[in-house]
Amino acid sequence: MLLISHSVQGQNAGIKFRHITSNEGLSQGTALCFLQDNTGFIWIGTRDGLNKFDGYSFTVFKNNPDDENSLSNNFVRDLFKDNDGNIWIATWGSGINMYDVNKQKFIRFFQDEEEKLANDFIYSIAQDNEGDIWIGLMGEDFINLIRKQINYSIILTMQINRPACPIITSGLFLPIRKKTSG
Q1: In the chain, where are the structural domains located?
Q2: Does pTM top 0.90 for this prediction?
Q3: CATH architecture for residues 22-170
Q4: Dihedral of CA 116/119/122/128: which sign?
Q5: What strands lie across the sheet with 76-81, from one edge to the other?
Q6: Going by C-beta distance under 8 Å and a sequence separation of 6 or more, which residues neighbour residue 169?
Q7: Looking at 80-84, 105-109, 143-147, which range is the least confident one?
Q8: Distances (CA, A) of 47 to 6, 127, 160
């Protein structure tokens, strides 16, 4: 007879919680969203910048009007890591940004009139099984983005009859219809 014994532990007593505030370098005390990237860094979105935490100290990213590779706005509403490990940043009032992990720089989207969003107040970001990025806006619009070589561009705008935020954050994509004029 062979006996196999497995040790099962319901709780790990070695887990420690550390309270981090602006005294430790966080740009602002209200953390709105969190994300762990593929290399282990913790990203924290606040009302006053995006914070990258390495376990010891913070690097704070903020808007610099003279630098097009900086964040478009300091109010970070949501963070999302795509299948390539890039970090998408939803700002409240200045559209969406992407942190390109390979180039280690921010890319701003929707700044020209042809690719203008219905509004610049982003609630949430998600990626579907085909790799398309879906952006939930304040109000009733959905924007679908698709990768085209290196750049992303809007290929479809859809109208729904309820706010986009609950639909995206639930992890489900409900049936929606194309926006029609008139």
Answers
A1: 22-170
A2: no
A3: 7 Propeller (2.130)
A4: negative
A5: 76-81, 87-91, 96-100, 105-108
A6: 123, 124, 126, 136
A7: 143-147
A8: 47, 24, 28
